[in-house]
Fold these 3 entries.
Entry 1:
Amino acid sequence: MKNTLFTPYNMNGIALENRFLMAPMTRSRATQPGDVPNALMAEYYGQRASAGIIITEATQISLQGKGYAKTPGIYIPEQIEGWKLITEEVHKKGSKIFLQLWHVGRVSSSQVNGLQPIGPSAKIAKETSVYIFDGAPNGDATFVPVESPKEMTQADINQVIEDFRIGAKNAIAAGFDGVEIHGANGYLIDQFLRSNSNIRTDKYGGSKENRVRILTEITEAVVNEIGAEKTGVRLSPFISFKDMNDPEILDTIMLATKKMEEIGATYIHLCEADWDDAPEIPTSFRTELRSTFSKTIIATGNKTPEQANTLLASNLVDIVGFGRKFLTNPDYPQRVKQNAPMNQISDNHTLFGGGDARGYTDYPFLI
C-alpha cells in the first residue's frame, strides 16, 4: 500500500499519527521583555495539533543569536517555563513537537539585540533586512538593514556550539520530543556551509570538508546531550536569498548529509523554495539524498496535498511540511480529508507581530 499524508509513521521510535508536519513559521508573539513564550502561543500551537508533528518557529539559543524582534528564546529559565505551556498543550491534543534551535549569525542588527552581528567572515549580507517594532501603525514590523558582522573567533565558535547544546538540553527540560538544528535559509550554519559567505582560511573555511565542520560539531554536541533519535537538521540547498548564492552548495549539502548519517541524526528536513515560480528540486537530488541518508526525510515548500502524496508514494520523502496552510487553517488535515474550502490570510499586518490573537488564533475551524 502506498504511503499518503494520512499514513501513520514511526520516526525512529517517535510515533506520528499522520505525515502532516506543521512547518516552522516566525510569528513574533513572545512576551516582552525577555522573549518568553506565553499562553497565546500555547493556544496557537494547540489549535494545530492535528498535525502528526509540529516544528516550532525558529527559537534563538542566545541573545547574540537573535535577529528579529519578539521571537522566542530557549536560554533563560523564564523561556523554558513558557515553552512548557506549549508542549503540554500539544501533547494533550495528541501530537508531537520539536523545537527549532536558531542562531541568525550575520542576519541581525544592533537595533534588534544591542549587539554587533557575528558570522563566519566579516562579510555583510547584501540587500538583507530584519525587523523591529517601533510603534508603527497597526503594530507593524519595521524593517531595518542588517549590519556588518564580526568574524567569529575560535572562542565564538566554541560558545555557539555550547549554546546549541544547552538549548537542546533546555528544550527537553521544557517537554519537547526533540529539536531541529536550523542549518538553512541563510542563517549562521548555512553561512558556514556556503563558499560565498564563508571565506575563512582556518579549519572552518576553504574546502567543503571544512565548511561542514561547524554543523557536524553542533550536531555531535546536541546528539551527545539529548540523543540522536531526538535530533533533526534542517537544510536548504536550493534557496539562495539573503545573499547566499553558492555554486558549490549541492555538493556541500550532500557531504553534510553523509556526516548527519554518520552521526545518526533522526531526520533531514529540506526547506524548499515556496514562491510561485520557484525551481523544482530534481528527482535526481532526492534519489541521491535517499541513498545517502537512511532515516527520515522531510520536505517542506508550499506543496499541494496531491504533490505531497506523490512524493510520499515515491518513498523519496517520509513526511511533508505545510506552513501557511496551517497558519490559516488550524484543522488543515481535516480540510484536506473532506476536500473542504480553505481559509486565506486575513491581514498581512498580523503575520509578524501585533502581539495579539488577530490573524493568529482567530482563524475558524470547520463547523
Note: The longest strand covers residues 53-60.
Entry 2:
Amino acid sequence: MDKSMLKYIAKRLMIAIATLFIILVVLFVLTKMLPGSPINNEKLSPAQRAVIMAKYGLDKPILEQFVNYLVNMLHGDFGISYTLYKEYPVAELLTSASKISFSLGIGACILGTIIGMALGVFAALHRNTFWDTLATGISVLGVSIPSFVFALLLVIFLGNMLKILPASYSPRNAIVSSILPMLALSMGVIANVARFTRTEMISVLNSEYITLAKAKGLDKRTLIMRHTLRNSLIPVITILGPILVNLMTGTMVVEYICGVPGLGKLLINSIHANDVNIIVACSFLYAAMYIIMTLFIDIAYGLIDPRIRLGKDD
C-alpha cells in the first residue's frame, strides 16, 4: 500500500471520527433541551427528585455531564435506562436489539439483491417487450413507495386477511415472523438492483466483445453467465453499500409496525418515555453505522481507482 493510499485512509478516518464526535455533542445537547425530566415520576417530592438527580449526576453542569458520558461510552458504558427499563444497562439493550435489526437488514439485502438481479436480467433479455415494461413498472413502484407502506399492506393482506404469515414478530418463532418485515424492507433493494442490473446488462449486451463472443458461437447461457452478467455486477456491487446502510437505518417504522423488538422500536419507545440515555445511544449507533459504512465505501473506491484518492488529496 503506497503513501498516497495511507494518507487518504488517515484523512477519511479523521473526518469520520470528527463527524461522530460532532453528532454525539449535538445529540447530547438536544436531549438536554427536551421538555420534562428523565425522572418522570410525579409522585416524587422535590427533595426525592433532587436526590435521584444527584445519584445519576444530572445535577452537574452539562459540560461535565458530557465529559463523563464520553469517557464511559469509550469504555462501552452507555448508562442505564431511567424510565423505560428501570436501572437496566443501555449497552445490553442495544446489543439484543441490534442483533435483530442487523439480521433483518442483512437478510433483506440478500433477498432483495437476488430477486432484483434476476428481475433485471430478465428485463434486459426481453427489452422493449411487455415483460420489460412490467419489470420496469415494478422497479418504479419499489423506488416510489416507502418500505413502511409495503409493511402495512403485507400486515393487512398476508398477516390479517390471508393469515399466511404472522402479522407481528414473536421471539418463539423468530425466523417465520421475520419474513414479513424482511419482505417489506427488501422491496426497495429489489427495485434499485433491478434498475441498475437492467441498465448495465443492456450496455454490456451492446458492447463489441459480446458481439465477438456471439460470432465465436458461444451458447447463450455461457454468454450471459460468464460474460454479460459478470461484467454487469460491478455497478450493482457499488450501490449495495449505501443500500445496506439505508436498510440498517431505515428499519425504524417497519420494526414498529411489525412489532419487531429491534433498534427502531427501542428508539421510538424511548422517545415516548423521554429515556435520554437510550435516545442518545440508539441515535449515535445509527449515525455510527452510516459513517462507518461510508468510510469503508470511500476506502474501497480509493483502492479500486487511484484517481479518487489523488483527486481528494489535491
Note: The mean pLDDT is 82.
Entry 3:
Amino acid sequence: MKSIGLIGGMSWESTALYYQIINREVARRLGGLHSARLHLQSLDFQQVVARQQSGAWAELSGMLASAGQALQHSGADCVLIGTNTMHRVAPEVQAQLQVPLLHIADATAAAIKAAGCRRVALLGTRYTMEQPFYTEHLARHGIACLVPEEAERAEVHRIIFDELCQGHCLESSRQTLKAIIAGLAAQGAEGAILGCTELPLLLQAADVALPLFDTTRLHALAAVDFALGDYPQAA
C-alpha cells in the first residue's frame, strides 16, 4: 500500500471528512482492520484565510509547497491539497515536489464525464467561482461551468466561511444552496459541483434533482485508487 500525504486544515472540518472517507474506503476494499497509510500536514486556517483575503497567493504557494515537501520527506507517495480554493497554487506546489500531486479537479472531471454531463453548476468560495483557475482546468476536460449570480456567490461564500468552516450546518442555508442549484439547472446545468470541501457537510445527493459531484469524496477516493493501485484487494 502506498502512502497518502494530505495538506489539510483548510478547514479542519473537511479534513476530518477526508480522513474518514479514505480510511473507510481502504477498509471496504481490503476488509478486516485495514486502514490507510496517511501523512497529514494541517495548517492554521486563519493564516491561510488572511492571505487569501489580501491576495498573497505567492505566500500561500510557499506555505503549501513547504507542507507538501514535508509530506514527501516523511514518506508520502502522493500529495493532496484538501481544499478546492488552494488548487489555485497547485501548479506551483507540484513544481516543488518529486511525487505526484493529485488534483481535485481531475478527480471531479472524471466523475462528471462518467455521468455524461458536460455543463455543470459550480458552487464554492468566491475565489473558486470567480477566478479562472478552476473553471479553466475543467474546460480542458471539455466541461463548462455555470456559476451563480453575484449576490448568490456572496451568500455561498458566507455560508462556507461563517458557518461550515466553524461547524455550523443550518437548514436555512441548505435551502439556500438548493434554490441556487435549481436556478442554475433552469439555465441548463446538467449536474452540480460541490466545489468547496466543506459543502458536503450541508448538502447531499438526495437534496437536489441534479447529479451532485462531491469533490471531497471524489478526491479522497482518487487517493485510495492511487494508494491501492497495485495492492491485493479483498474478493
Note: The first helix runs from residue 12 to 30.
